[in-house]
Amino acid sequence: MDFKKILAGIFVIGLFASLIGFNTVSAKKSSAVKMEPETIESMANQVDNLTKKVYGRALLSPEDNSNLVAIKIKLDNQMLLEPDPALAPLYYKVGCMYKMREMKDEATECYQTILENFGTTALAPKAYQALKDMGVDVTQFDANMNKSASEDEEEEEE
Residues 6 or more apart from 43 whose CB is under 8 A from it? Predict the structure, then answer.
């Protein structure tokens, strides 16, 4: 019985890894084209609907889980081609979804992507705070956050 569970687990992990690898390879092969605004809006709507379910204490269906994973894969593939600040809100929302579902590693990855690639956006301080709240070591981002804070103060003085 235990052997069957282990074998099934290995199969699922292998299948998931091959899907991720395939999507990554196909993203690298395609030309460096920005994601269409309609695609970004569609993904944002899907994430909003999933967030509503979580706030309403509804369980996510397997299809919902699949959609969330698909959105994260699309975001990551786009980041391989060209980081686009329009993706920052999606990364933040997906990170919040993962955080609410107590999937700390996935949430951490989303928030760190914002800090590493979109550190000048309004979501960077929120992502920084979310990481701190989860107990993640954010010292590597302290310099960027302090720099952003001092820039904000200079703009307010002018």
Answer: 71, 74, 75, 90
